[in-house]
Predict the structure of DUF4198 domain-containing protein.
Amino acid sequence: MKSNRLGTAALFLMTSLSAQAHDFWLEPTHYHTKTPSSIALQFKVGHKEDTSHWSLAWNKIVALRTYSSDGVTDMGASVVPRTALLPGMAKTTELAPGSHVIGFESYHATSVLDAKKFNQYAKDEGLAEILAYRESRGQNDIAGEELYSRKAKTIVQVGDTFTDNVLKPIGHTLEIVPLNHPYKLDDNTLVVQVLFKGKPLSNALIDALSLADHNAQAQALTTDKDGKATFKLDTKGPMMLNTVWGVPLKNSSAADFETYFSSLTFEYLP
């Protein structure tokens, strides 16, 4: 988003903070298939039942790839941008038996919020570095301007061959990495680690919520010193985990802060 997206992005955040309008995720048509097949993918934004298709466009995509145990495949050629008639989608090549991660990264966009809304937004999202920076510089009464980008992953399973590539980071700036396989949990316990620039991120707020049951209670945890959080899953069906992190941008004319939004989706099958 450049100039034509600035107003839309700011308005969206300003009017929808209570609904967590930042939620962005990848939604495959199937999280699990029995036989090798290609998987179509949609790009969603919103919260609970208030969701819509993200305005997928070529100039917003940094990378869209499939990560499998035998390598990485670029999905750029499969992208169908959103139009008035189409929701926007992409499609994998035929996936072999095993576990696969689809990863997406967007370019930066800009958002501006007045002081009160920005402070509340930063508090709600647990943006500790940003809050401390504004406090130390006496900036709590001025508007906050940020560059933000989206990072999203989804895990799909083909057949009953579970591969551990889903337990490895794919290199996103902000990334949620499961430490036990979401499709073969011994119980309902899922342990994840949040990485920022490849290193464990402590004190990050991470949410887990059902994409199938909008009445299910969401879970919100803060990562420990090793960037880890442990969730007890209790709702069958597609799940989303998401986290946000931001840092001050020093000596930059583009914005005051840089913020990253990251999500992970999969299907919980107890």
About this structure: The chain has three helices and 18 strands. Residues 1-20 have pLDDT under 50 and may be disordered. The helical segments are 3-16, 115-124, 128-136.
